[in-house]
Amino acid sequence: MKNRALNNRALNNQAMNNQAMKNQAMESNALTLKHIGKSYSVDGKVFPVIRDISLEVAKGEFITIVGHSGCGKTTLLKMIAGLVECNEGEIIRNGVKATAPGTDCGMVFQDHRLMPWLRVKANVGFGLRRMKRRERAELVQRHLQLVNLEEFSSAWPHQLSGGMAQRAAIARGLVTDPEILLLDEPFSALDALTRIQMQLEILQIWRKKKTTMIMVTHDIDEAVFLGERVVIMTACPGEIREIVSIPGNVRLHRDSTEFAQYRDYVFRHFFVDEKDAGMTKSHRVS
Ligand SMILES: Nc1ncnc2c1ncn2[C@@H]1O[C@H](COP(=O)(O)OP(=O)(O)OP(=O)(O)O)[C@@H](O)[C@H]1O
Ligand SMILES: [Mg+2]
Description:
Layout (H helix, E strand, L loop, with lengths): L1 H26 L1 E14 L2 E14 L3 E5 L6 H9 L6 E6 L2 E2 L7 E4 L11 H5 L8 H14 L15 H13 L5 E5 L7 H18 L2 E5 L3 H7 L2 E5 L6 E6 L2 H4 L5 H14 L16
Parallel strand pairs: 3-8, 3-9, 6-7, 7-8
Antiparallel strand pairs: 1-2, 1-4, 4-5, 9-10
Helix pairs in contact: 4-5, 7-9
């Protein structure tokens, strides 16, 4: 009897230690998603959009997310940003339950969303309105330099090219020094060459600022090039189909055989349900 009580106590202690270790790991995460679910209601009908998504993102990690159109990627980012509520589960952002937007988490959208009535510097500094003028000007200047736009600080948004406007949006997302930057297909409207240049720039920024980056993209090449882990989602309702870790020595070498193998692997798992996606037999996952 006494032995059983001792064993129970030992098991309880073990469980408490495990929980403490789990809590510690969670605290060192930038983001923890626990069984997230989301449905939208349209004309009285309920449509599930996201189903049971769990994910842990370490501080400073670069995650890319690929998934079919309409599988809930933007909804997922908006829930992380606290712009949309989830129906199920819990989102822990920087150790705190995320229920509202905060300066710890910035977001860059597919379209730049710069305010046309404000100059570039005022757009970038918009989130710093409460800061003293001088400090604010310094921060804005530093972030315009980071995205190579310092010469255009007084320009109006309509005077920028697509790539420049997207850079300004990235500067605006980073200026509050968020722990997490969410990027929702930020380069999809750009031409191929500007896009490659922007990918290199975002990598440099990531290395300099060590911000945790979570980027949604439809471009598998981009996902493998930038992501330390690539999250592949299923079609709607979006679930995580697979998470592929890309080794550091592979992801940055776009012309290597290993890179091509990873890209092919993500491609095959992305189209796993598609019988008519123009795939040869060798592309299909058996
Ligand atoms: N506010 C809303 N009310 C109702 N339905 C919505 C709302 N926002 C999104 N949806 C629906 O949720 C689904 C997922 O939308 P979401 O924008 O998250 O997809 P996505 O994966 O980002 O797609 P895409 O790759 O085309 O950007 C879609 O069917 C969309 O119609
Ligand atoms: Mg979207």
